[in-house]
Every structure is written in structure tokens, then in C-alpha cells.
């Protein structure tokens, strides 16, 4: 297996650690190091620049995947690869080129394009990994969560929190693709994964207009008195596009009317939340939607932890540290930890974003730095 950690042999020359007095290279020193090796011991002084950097320096790259490239490949796998028990899902992961050939978009997050052909079914299962879907185009698939069918349509953000049974069924004669986000890498590193197969067929073929969970939970500002305890995952199965779209357009309209509503001029944004806590939708994943007006540039911002964006609509340029990418509808890009991101919108630009920040907030390891509008830091 490819090694996941680049091991430094000596303190890197470009860090303050380089000032450390290295011992003289003598035969005794070499035999000491050989003895360390034989006993599975590693001295800190050879690794410190990598283990204890002055600030995060992610192995993940700020990579971009184009929808126009990955969607046809997903469609091709629809022709060649059956979906069913065992493989479970026709999901193709974004593999960050900095992460040693593993199917990880970032050190903590999985992002994949999933493809389901006409009338196909992805069988039910459950796992401790938290999952969501975001739909950039198309409709017609039903994700069935604990026996409750939930329609998937363009712009919807759908949840499958850990340990809920879920399967997917395409009830139309057209294929559909969407993106999945999960905390698979985080769960893998921490050896906390459990998995169970469900029934081979998805447990319902009903296609109701609204899922039972939406009928119970999706009334703005209200919760049922039958469920007053806080839940660590949001009970909302689908955050519908009409609400996201209206929330953003109203923020911009209020800004035009002179009321404070946007995060910065011409930049509207919402976070999807758990209505029982007001916090993030799931314990390991934050999800947001951003709308930047044509001609606006967002202020540079970096934070601890990693994020993945998908362009929902529009065109622009993203600056990620030293890298710049022109982006359009469906394109996906990674923002590694502590990498400054700024977005320049050519047309009105709609961006879906997910990140691992809830993990670091819970552990009090979170940090954010925002460029001052004059180019300095605040
Ligand atoms: O749809 O249940 O991309 O279990 C990876 C693992 C999707 C899913 C993925 C999964 C799923
Ligand atoms: Fe799953």
C-alpha cells in the first residue's frame, strides 16, 4: 500500500528546525540509528519538521475535477459495470493526487460521482460513516432512508447520517448522476467503521411527493413536540433547492435594500443546519451554499480542516493558494487545510461547499484567518 505520510529524513531546510545542531555523522551514530531501526524506534529530531510544522502544510493538493470529464466516465461505467450487492454503489471517488493513490478527496473527506441507470437499484445497507448527496443536475432517483423514500432533484441536499439503512432506486427511463460526500477517510484512519447489509431490494417502491421525515420536520421554525430532545444528526432528509435558492436571493435583495444580510458585499451564504441543535447537519460534515454576484471577488480566507466545493451554476475563477482555476457548472475542487481561497465571479456564481470543520470545532482545534480588504490580515 502506498505510504500516506511523507517521512522527512532530516529537519527540512526551509523550516526554523533546520537551525538544530545535527549530530556528527560517525560510525557509532550510524549503528545507533541502525539499532533504532531494528527496534522500531524513530527519533523525533529526524521527523520534527514534518510532525510538528509551524502551521498546517497539507499533503492534499488544491485539485480540480471537471464535470465535463468525470460525467462521461461515470456514464461509461454505467454501460460496463453492474450495480448491486457486493460493490454496493456505482460511485467513483475523487482521488487527491497528494494522498498516495487513496480514494480520498482530502485527508478526512470522500467525494464521489454516483451514477444510476434507468430502473436500476443500489441495495440497502448501513454504515457508521456519515453521508450526503448533492444533485447538480437531473432527477428521478429515490433514496430510501430507513424505509422512507426521498425524491432527489436538482439543487437538493440530502442526508444519510451514520447507521441509517439506505438504498437508491432510479424510477425513470433516464440515468441520473449526483455527488456523494462521506467521512470515509476520517473513519478509516480512526478504525471506527462498522457496516451491515440490508435487504437486497430497496424496501419500498412508493414515490410519494414528500417523505415522512419531511412531513414531520420541514416546517420553518417549528418542531414537533413529540421530538424535543437534541439529535446529533439532523432529522431533515432533504434540504430542497427552492428554499436554498430563496434564502440566497432574499439575502441579496435585502442587501440591495440597505439591510445587513450578506457575509460580505455581493456574497450571500447559508449553512445547512440540524433543527434540533442549530449546529451542523452531521457531527463530521459541514455543508453550505454560497452565491457570489457577477463581478464580485470574495475576500481571501483560510481555515483549519479541508473542504470540497462543487460549482452549481455560473462561471468564475478560484484562487487557491498559488493555484488558479477557471470553473463552471459541475466542476469540483478541493481546498486543503490552511489554504487561502478567494472566488471571483464572472457571472452570478452558485457554489455548494462541504467541510470537516465540525470535527475540529468539537476538539477546539479550529482556526480561521481572513485577509483584510486592504490586502493585509485581520
Ligand atoms: O450511496 O450509500 O459514494 O455507501 C460511498 C459509499 C456512496 C452510498 C458512496 C456509500 C455510498
Ligand atoms: Fe452507503
Model description:
The protein folds into 3 domains: 1-54, no CATH class; 63-217, Sandwich (Jelly Rolls); 238-370, Jelly Rolls (Sandwich). The relative contact order is 0.13. The chain is built from 7 helices and 22 strands. It has a 6-stranded antiparallel β-sheet. It has a 6-stranded antiparallel β-sheet with strand order 2-3-10-5-8-12. It has helices spanning 27-38, 44-51, 67-80, 184-189, 212-217, 241-256, 357-362, and strands spanning 64-65, 91-93, 110-116, 121-127, 131-134, 139-145, 148-153, 157-160, 166-170, 176-182, 195-197, 238-239, 267-271, 286-292, 301-303, 307-313, 316-320, 323-327, 332-335, 341-345, 349-355, 368-370. 18% of the residues lie in helices and 29% in strands. A hairpin with a 2-residue loop joins strand 17 and strand 18 (323-327). The chain is α+β, with helices and mostly antiparallel strands and 378 residues long. The chain binds 2,5-dihydroxybenzoic acid and fe (ii) ion. 2,5-dihydroxybenzoic acid (GTQ) is lined by residues 88-89, 91, 112, 114, 127, 131, 166, 180, 182. This is Cupin domain-containing protein.
Amino acid at each position: 500500500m502506498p505510504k500516506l505520510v511523507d517521512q522527512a529524513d532530516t529537519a527540512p531546510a526551509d523550516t526554523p528546525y533546520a537551525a538544530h545542531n545535527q549530530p556528527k555523522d560517525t560510525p557509532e551514530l550510524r549503528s545507533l540509528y541502525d539499532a533504532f531501526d531494528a527496534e522500531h524506534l524513530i527519533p523525533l529530531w529526524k521527523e520534527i519538521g514534518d510532525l510538528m510544522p509551524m502551521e498546517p502544510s497539507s499533503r492534499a493538493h488544491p485539485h480540480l475535477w471537471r464535470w465535463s470529464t468525470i460525467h462521461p466516465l461515470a456514464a461509461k461505467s454505467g454501460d460496463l459495470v453492474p450495480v448491486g450487492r457486493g460493490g454496493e454503489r456505482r460511485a467513483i471517488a475523487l482521488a487527491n493526487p497528494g494522498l498516495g493513490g487513496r480514494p480520498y478527496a482530502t485527508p478526512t473527506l470522500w467525494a464521489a460521482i454516483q451514477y444510476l441507470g434507468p430502473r436500476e437499484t443500489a441495495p440497502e445497507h448501513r454504515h457508521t460513516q456519515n453521508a450526503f448527496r448533492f444533485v447538480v443536475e437531473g432527477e428521478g432517483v429515490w433514496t430510501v432512508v430507513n424505509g422512507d423514500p426521498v425524491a432527489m432533484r436538482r439543487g437538493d441536499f440530502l442526508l444519510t447520517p451514520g447507521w441509517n439503512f439506505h438504498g437508491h432506486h432510479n424510477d425513470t427511463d433516464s440515468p441520473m448522476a449526483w455527488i456523494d460526500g462521506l467521512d470515509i477517510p476520517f473513519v478509516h484512519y480512526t478504525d471506527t467503521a462498522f457496516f451491515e447489509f440490508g435487504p437486497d431490494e430497496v424496501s419500498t417502491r412508493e414515490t410519494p411527493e414528500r417523505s415522512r421525515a419531511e412531513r414531520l420536520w420541514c416546517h420553518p421554525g417549528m418542531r414537533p413536540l413529540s421530538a424535543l430532545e437534541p439529535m446529533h444528526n439532523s432529522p431533515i432528509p432533504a434540504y430542497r433547492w427552492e428554499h436554498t435558492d430563496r434564502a440566497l436571493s432574499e439575502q441579496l435583495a435585502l442587501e440591495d435594500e440597505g439591510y445587513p444580510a450578506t457575509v460580505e458585499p455581493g456574497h450571500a451564504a447559508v449553512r445547512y443546519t440540524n433543527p434540533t441543535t442549530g449546529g451542523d447537519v452531521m457531527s463530521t460534515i459541514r455543508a453550505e451554499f454560497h452565491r457570489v454576484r457577477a463581478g464580485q471577488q470574495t475576500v481571501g480566507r483560510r481555515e483549519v480542516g479541508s473542504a470540497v466545493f462543487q460549482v452549481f451554476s455560473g462561471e468564475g475563477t478560484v484562487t487557491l493558494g498559488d493555484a488558479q482555476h477557471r470553473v463552471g457548472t459541475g466542476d469540483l475542487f478541493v481546498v486543503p487545510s490552511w489554504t487561502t481561497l478567494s472566488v471571483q465571479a464572472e457571472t452570478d456564481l452558485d457554489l455548494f461547499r462541504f467541510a470537516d470543520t465540525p470535527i475540529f470545532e468539537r476538539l477546539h482545534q479550529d482556526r480561521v484567518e481572513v485577509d483584510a480588504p486592504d490586502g493585509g490580515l485581520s
